[in-house]
Each structure stands twice: as C-alpha cells, then as structure tokens.
Amino acid sequence: QVQLAESGGGLVQAGGSLRLSCAASGSNFSTYHMSWFRQAPGKERELVARISIGGGKYYADSVHGRFTISRDNARNTLYLQMNSLKPGDTAVYYCAARLLPLGKYNYWGQGTQVTVSS
Length: 118
Description:
mainly beta
C-alpha cells in the first residue's frame, strides 16, 4: 500500500519554473515505477513523464527538454522540475505509481494545480 501526496504547484508567469514533489508513504517506494500525469480543463488526463525503478525516463514530446523527472528513493519522493513553462502547461498534475512497468497504475495522488500566466 502506498499513499501519494503532491506539492509544489502554484501560479507562475510564462518562462518561469516550478518543482513538483510527490511524497510517498508506505512501503517499498523503490519498487514502484513512477509517473507524472496532468489534466487540463476539458481535456483528458495525459502522461507527462515516467521513471522506472532502474531510473529509465520517458517524456511526452510536449515537455521534452523543458521538464525533468527524478526520484530520491532514500526520501521516498518523486520530483518534476518544470522549466520554461508555457500557458499550455496549465493543469492539475498527478503522480502515480505501479508495480509493473506497463499496465494499470495502482496508486494516485490527489493532484496539485499548476497555472501558467501569459
């Protein structure tokens, strides 16, 4: 069982930066494949980035080169460093965890709002 709690969202101007954190409580954080998703108003939830238990990373084309996903297993925390933010990045950002590298996610956080003003 894992509980996920996101933090670090807020209001930022275009071109600015934010770092999101996802604190995991429970057991064996290092054994979970972790991801960041986002959902903008009126749009479907989309994958932003994921990191495997081995540290392999994937980014959506829309954020590649601007966002960096990382994890600190000693602190049971997942991060998303977001640079060069655009108004199109405005969304609720969620972290998610799964035991397998593919398939359904087992656990979700409650989300944190990111708003980028032009």
